[in-house]
Amino acid sequence: MSGLARRLVIFATIEGLVLQAHGHPEHHKSLLIDYRSQQITDRAKRDQHNNQDSVRLEAHGLIGFINVASSSYLIAITKREEVARIYDKPIYLVTDVALLPLTSQHEAGEAIKNALGSSETASDDSDSSASDTEHEEQSKTAQLGTAPADDTGPYQGENPSSSSVAEDVATRNVSFGKFASQWLSRQKWPASKLAKDESSTQSSEPKPASKDDTLLEDLAEAKENKQSGATAESSDTNKPTGSSSSTTVNLLPRILRTTKMIFTSGSYFFSYDIDLTRRFEDMNTPDQPLNHRNLDPLFFWNRKLGAKLLESNNSNFLTPILQGFVGQRAFTLSKGSSENNKAEVKAVTDDVKSLAKASDKDETEQAFLLTLISRRSTKRAGLRYLRRGIDDEGNVANFAETEQILSAADWSSAVPIRSFLQVRGSIPAYFSQSPYQFKPTVIFHNSPQANQKAYDKHFQNLKQRYGATQAAVLVDRHGTEQPIGEAYERMYSKSKEEGKADDISFEWFDFHSECRGMKFENVSRLVSKLDPFLQSSGETTMQNGTTQSRQKGVIRTNCMDCLDRTNVAQSAFAQHKLQASLEAEGYSIDFVKDPSTNWFNILWADNGDAISRQYASTAALKGDYTRTRKRNWRGAMNDFGLTISRYYSNMVNDFFSQAVIDMLLGNVSWKVFEDFESTMMSTDPGISVQSGREAAIDMCSKMVIQEPDKEDLIHAWTMLVPNQENTLRTLPFEEAVVLLTDSALYCCKMDWGTEKVARYEKVDLRNVKSIKWGVYVTSTFTERQMSEDINQGLVICYTPGKGDVVRVNTRSLQNYHVPQEDERQGVDGGTGLLSWMAASVTRQSAAQDRTMALKVVPPSDDDALITSKAGKPGEIAENVADEIRRAIHGSTQFGEQRGKEIVEHSDIISVAEAKRRTGYIEQVSHSLKRLVWA
Description:
alpha+beta; PH-domain like; ten-stranded mixed β-sheet; about 20% strand; globular
């Protein structure tokens, strides 16, 4: 089959970006994807534009669309490499993509020229199955937009040396065949040829629906709906919801570079015919077309990016991609002793067919194919130290499903096809580790009850998907890893006590202790311990088109990162299962001592390296043992270099890359980058911040209100406060719990890592002298930080008295502390680089009065949250001030007029004042930080 049968022609015209289904100069059948919804109804005008000079680029498929600020981009696959075949259908690795802007014809043309130039200068090794002649035709087509001369098409009689990509697509029944046949039939092609096309595809392709579902018409309809007030596009999480920010625009080049880097990292695979997102027993067979609606959303990586195509019934233009690994090796075995089996590896191309034919001549010899597929989950996806542990839905970081498939080299149904499945995933608990340490300590989050709830949900999900689960835990029983291993074991024990772990087993194998001295072969001890589970869970076996048996359980392996030790253990389980499967067929082979079987180790080492690069940005450690089953000092030195590289990536690159990954997966909108430039951090959208705040409020109210029977809680909030009391700004600002009772105001600073109150300040309401609320700008480095709508807060001025208390949790005896006279100037008298005094906003001098500064937590990156139930930041600040005023009025019996007088609405720190207060050193510090991180 011609490689062009899998391609689209993309070119730029004066109207924008066009997908052309056929490139004949006299009969342009073009499909306009105009993301700005600029409708083109004049067919003659469109044909005139198409006849003008245009820059054309062929693509192997579309990944989807991204929207950043006011810009939209189409992601097209421009290079690919065949890496495997399933049912003799090719599986490809994405090796290059083009990001084509849709908002400017000039920019689209330049992007296509750049992509075309890269395609012309690069070698054509990516299409390993194509001949040299076909490569030459492909290069010509990339420039001219025409199919090779040996293709046949509806215009063959008119121009036998040229044919159409559209006809090639339609008649060969490829991914885009359904759409092409529908579209071309509406354009009144020759009836005889259409009848021929329909007869050629009728046997294997369902009859197209009569509904007009072309993308052009769908977009036109979407525009009409939009104009009439419809919200058809509201489901697109990446759609810009407001005006673009200069901050995001400035970061746009890096956003695009990072996006391209992600898709060209050698981590994404696709097939036009096979559903890679599902395990082998649920895959579609060659006689069943790929159905985008049946793809498993857990592993369908570009589902959000392709939402527009899916919603407009144009899924045939979308190429589903899988993140993970796909590898394959072919080998031959003879029945008898293992000494006669050399298991020679063949390339997964035509050599496999010749290998199968050669084995047919010898009844005792069989050609096998071993296929390895790893599927990384789209849930809690991301990078090493930024996505760890579990989220509220029971999804764990670095979750990957790895399937080992043993089949005949020609996929003959007469030979049993065996599938063995394993999974890996982070320890199912709320925890984090600092990326700035070589041996970071584990920091636990949330309450034990919340951890247990998420743990149970995780294993419930595993049970529904895989059946019984055997947990193989490889963390150390001592040192920094001991607490997390013990927490895992406690949750397992509690779940078992409650009768929720009937199908769960737990085995703690201290890998470093058991394999001390680099004797990684000792992992066979773990395999022996879990052999009863391996036998009882079995494997999936299919023969002659029917399923003979199904795997009844799965081994869930993890170490701290689910990378290096996990790779070694999983390859050992897979080797054990493969050897047993071959022995069941009457073939004996020694995967440990026979050097001709080293291909198995290399295949699994490649899998480990792929997952490691996707999670930790480097190849896997201990890869030398996985490849050679030997460990020496060279491997240890190589691991040291990889550790240094990981350390650098964790500190410098990962925060920005994580934000891009979250945007591509639809977890956040592009507005996440507005905050990134100031914080250089990315938040975790999988963990509910609100639930954590509610738990903190509940805990603080129980801890700091000493007489709840005499003191009624009126309201509670979480607010940002300066690092030191009695200042308007000392960095970093901390999120604190603010409690308002009928007699006092409490500000509780939290240790969010241990969920304990680190310090709290109590102000008697009778001592409050004034409340000011308004604009509260504390930084001037980004537009978002200077926005008066977002940056709002209030300052409470009070005279210290007997009812005021400051307590500090020293982790031993609590320290009772009353503010002294020499401390009322603030931490440094307001002269420090990062400290701004509060005296200028109070009615009294700082020597007599103190202030409590509270800033409203800025809304997240989504505009919708700004106008959520809580209100805009300014409304929140006003409501808090009013709540405090009413509580003061009730406790001090002020007159109504007096109660109103203590509240003042004016700027706390205006933008102009914040700019004056920002020192030169602070500006230089931020510039250096931005240079490194952003």
